[in-house]
Design a protein that fits this description.
The chain is α/β, with parallel strands linked by helices. The protein has 14 helices and 17 strands. Helix 4 packs antiparallel against helix 11. It is globular.
């Protein structure tokens, strides 16, 4: 691009600017010279998307896309309900749902209309202005939970980052200089640096530390172990003597837990564990925070996973299903936590924009109109019963069934001779999409609109995959 700046009509203004800058180098030059500068832009040669051949999608990924995912050799071209169709016309029953995201399935008429209508109106404006759909979605989240106010972002990791910042700021307001957030081993809270540091799985930390350490201020305890949690809270609420002499104060800022550990193997929370966490937070002024990114929005059979545990957190995070596949995240808080972040402390360019919130409202409305919570419970019971029968029938391969609602997993025996990932691949060949939750658990997370017939079909296909490994 060739660029020269100027205008014949504004030459004095521009020349004045240049003459001021140059006057220091020409102290004896007192004559003001008006110079006309003209702007010309030569057309650049851009390669349009239409100029790029796309007849080899896997090859394009190999050449152009960073390899942050291990992908199956499968290209999805369209979807309808709980069915996806690949580039060869083969149909698959989708029990992945974008990993617990597309709770209304694919090509949902109400969601499509809401997004289309919104993008034909206004799809994005800054949070410097009022966005009506954001206010309404915030009201829906608050009216259907124990919370007071919502902050919107774009993903689960971002929502958890907001929760982490909220906890640290809240602790700072209480005079804590060294805030500690306690999370669980085998947890998963996202891929951004602080969310990854909160994730209690060392394998995800490799290569991202500084001096062997991740973001400081996180401690990990065994999930559902009451004694470990109690001991950790007691220890972290004591400031080491040397630090105290330096005027520092250590304290627990928050206990951050998933109501159900998804990536950790579909492990449900123990109500007694969560009640203890609630009590410990109340005693020391810390926040109890629940990561609802995967289990929330009805997947557990209740709107929020923590409702299965008999506790109310101070903060919870949501994403994935909140927009039904349209990117959106939220950090929702109550009490002092709801007013901890103020202008200048946190923000998001896209968070809560009209397009994303239109999708969120469409999902929320559909959930109410079609009673998806009831369907999640009924189909979840059917799925558990069917998986249990398969475990009884093939004990050499399958162990226990676990989970809530339509977030279910089945454990693969350690000596089965097959991994969860391999069984997922076998099921895919038979026309069923599943996803592993660790090396030994196969996860079933269909859209919440799934029917009785589709559950039966999925169980039948999964049995075909199992039979490939039964002598």
């Amino acid at each position: 691009v060739a660029l020269s700046i100027g205008s014949q009509h504004n030459s004095h203004t521009l020349a004045d600017a240049f003459s001021v800058a140059s006057s220091a180098g020409h102290k004896h030059h007192n004559t003001r010279t008006a110079t006309a500068l003209h702007a010309t832009i030569e057309k650049t040669s851009l390669k349009a998307p239409s100029d790029i051949p796309d007849d080899d999608i896997p090859g394009m990924f190999e050449q152009y896309v960073q390899k942050t995912y291990g992908r199956y050799n499968l290209t999805i071209e369209k979807g309808e309900g709980c069915t996806l169709t690949d580039s060869n016309g083969k149909e698959y029953l989708d029990f992945v749902a974008g990993i617990s995201t597309c709770i209304l399935g694919h090509n949902n008429a109400e969601l499509s209309k809401a997004v289309t209508d919104q993008i034909n109106s206004v799809h994005h404006v800054s949070n410097l202005y009022y966005i009506p759909s954001q206010a309404k979605l915030a009201a829906w989240l608050v009216e259907n939970s124990c919370m007071d106010k919502a902050f919107f972002c774009n993903s689960g990791a971002e929502a958890n980052e907001a929760a982490i910042k909220c906890a640290r700021r809240h602790a700072s307001n209480r005079g804590i200089t060294d805030p500690v957030i306690i999370t669980a081993k085998q947890s998963f809270h996202g891929r951004t640096l602080a969310a990854l540091s909160a994730t209690g799985q060392p394998k995800y930390h490799e290569g991202f530390g500084y001096g062997g350490e991740m973001v400081p201020g996180f401690q990990y305890v065994t999930y559902n172990n009451l004694d470990e949690l109690k001991a950790m809270v007691e220890e972290m609420n004591q400031t080491p003597e040397e630090d105290a002499k330096a005027g520092r104060k250590r304290g627990v800022a928050a206990i951050m837990l998933e109501a159900l550990q998804g990536e950790g193997g579909i492990i449900t929370g123990d109500p007694d564990y969560f009640k203890l966490a609630r009590m410990l937070c109340d005693e020391c002024g810390a926040l109890l925070m629940c990561d609802e990114v995967q289990v929330g929005m009805g997947r557990s059979g209740t709107l929020w996973g923590f409702e299965n545990l008999g506790v109310e957190p101070d903060v919870f995070t949501s994403a994935k299903a909140l927009g039904g596949g349209v990117p959106i995240g939220a950090m929702v808080a109550k009490g002092a936590a709801a007013d901890t972040l103020v202008p200048g402390t946190h923000a998001s360019t896209y968070g809560g924009n009209p397009l994303a919130c239109a999708a969120g409202l469409a999902v929320a409305q559909y959930m109410s109109d079609h009673d998806l919570l009831t369907n999640a419970n009924e189909r979840g019971e059917q799925l558990s019963e069917g998986l249990g029968k398969l475990a009884e029938k093939y004990p050499a391969v399958l162990a226990d069934t676990r989970g809530w609602g339509l977030l279910k997993g089945i454990k693969i025996n350690d000596d089965a001779g097959v991994t969860a990932g391999e069984l997922v691949g076998d099921a895919m060949e038979e026309g069923l999409l599943l996803v592993a939750a660790g090396p030994s658990v196969v996860r079933f997370v269909p859209p919440l609109i799934v029917t009785k017939e589709e559950i039966d079909q999925a169980l039948s296909i999964f049995e075909k995959a199992i039979l490939k490994h039964v002598e």
